[in-house]
Amino acid sequence: MRRSSRWMEALALLVAGLLLSLVLDDAGAATPEFPPEFRIGYQKFGTLILLKARGDLEQRLTPQGVRVVWAEFPYGPPMLEALNAGRLDFATTGETPPVFAQAVPGSPLVYVGHEPPSPESEAVIVPAHSPIRTLSDLKGKKIAVAKGSNAHYLLVAALQKAGLSLQDVQPVYLAPADARAAFERGAVDAWSIWDFYRAAAELRLQARTLTDGRGLVANFENYTSRRPFAERYPALVKLVLEEIARVDAWAAQHPETAAALLSKQVGVDADILLPALKRRSYGAGPVSAEFLANQQKVADTLAAIGLIPQPVRVAEATLARIP
């Protein structure tokens, strides 16, 4: 009986020791440094799809026991809906979708990085022989745009420059592929859109640029995550931003090679992708004060015209909790 009691005491001490070793590591943390799965949302253009094609991220994360899962979306808003719902861990969009996403009560979205501004990468375009020559000529016209996208904000800014508003035109809210079809058959008078769709319309449909984003918008491409995920796995967020920066540097130096690689991924001719790649800026980095100020400007504009249901304080979607 005594021997059994001693055995039970020894077993209890062993179990307690094992539990303690699980709870306390050298840093005093209970959470593993990397998750078993990393879910990334991407679109048919930009650095993330190049990162996916090259396999660089998998090379670094597979030894850490992380499975990378890629999910393609047609544009930003549905991607960030998935992020808000916990179906993604990391996403990339233009400057406007995160503002819409943050306006959803309880949104876990946080900014973790961004690219430099690329205002030339989006434009309001019209058919080659359209009588529309100035922004003022858009009054009363049908304009295709993806609702909640960065091109939506571009359209707002372009109209404001001409002394117009969304109420003075007929927005036709369409996803990019549907908007392209409507534009080609003449069902809309203009299209507010980003690259590579812009480049495709210019090269294949001889579309004419009414205005691009220069002087109107910054057009930051940004990287977002969910606060619980980013706070739990900061090493992973840092690692993926490092890999994005490396691919950025490579694409900036080798645009023709990048266009050829991207062409295989998206099924779009390289001659369309090349001008789109040359129009964008490269150099992913951490969240900056300039970026946050721009995002706040976007948020204030959208709130003022009623496109988001309530004002958004962008600083609340940062890991640093900037005051």
From TrEMBL:
Residues 37-269 form the Solute-binding protein family 3/N-terminal domain. Pfam families: NMT1. It comes from the Bacteria. Its main location: periplasm. InterPro entries: ABC_SsuA_sub-bd (IPR010067), Solute-binding_3/MltF_N (IPR001638), SsuA/THI5 (IPR015168). It is found in: Periplasm. Keywords: Signal, Transport. Belongs to the bacterial solute-binding protein SsuA/TauA family. This is Aliphatic sulfonate ABC transporter periplasmic binding protein. It comes from Candidatus Methylocalor cossyra. The lineage of its organism: Bacteria, Pseudomonadati, Pseudomonadota, Gammaproteobacteria, Methylococcales.
